[in-house]
Amino acid sequence: MPEWGTLSLFLFAAFALVATPGPSVLYVVARSMDQGRGAGIASAFGIQAGTLVHVVAAVIGISALVASSATAFAVVKYLGAAYLIYMGIRTLTRKIDVAAEMTPRTPQPPRRIFFQGLVVEALNPKTVLFFLAFLPQFVDPARGSVATQTLILGALLAMIGLLSDTMYALIAGTAGALLHRNKLFARTQRYVSGGVYLGLGATTALMGSRD
Predict the structure, then answer these.
(1) 143: which DSSP letter?
(2) How far, in Å, CA of 32 to CA of 44, rounded?
(3) Has residue 3 been placed in a domain?
């Protein structure tokens, strides 16, 4: 277990990191505004489940292997990009019924939304590099098992991320419910959400292993 001073510094750094909106926040916000608070919260849980996948991968060394292998890194990168671009295209090509868009829309099953969030985060190459660069700074081999410390710190980071993403989901979902009553927003909302997915996909595809 890391000593209290190290743990305090980690918590401060983690809160500072999650307070800055990044790709996962944009994904949760887009999902919340499109399908409501419930969908956003399910996405937030999925994203952080994906984070835990990276934590376990970091512990057993898969993250280091992916980061050091150009081929493995490219596979993860392009799979993640393709999935986001697919979601963007599907959102943009969705048929528009303004009257239906201005009424509460039944979201996808929470299990499906959760799984989609998990896939998006698990295939995020930036998270692979983040864990390799960030977590080791707070791990002290003299304090016990490196694997145990990494799991503890990773779990804490996921919990902090979940709180942050849930807050964004609630705010964006509430705003989306109000904006759906506006005809202009009802007509253009799919372009905003689809554009976010496409932008995230393009950013992921263009990312280099040393970024």
Answers:
(1) G
(2) 10
(3) no
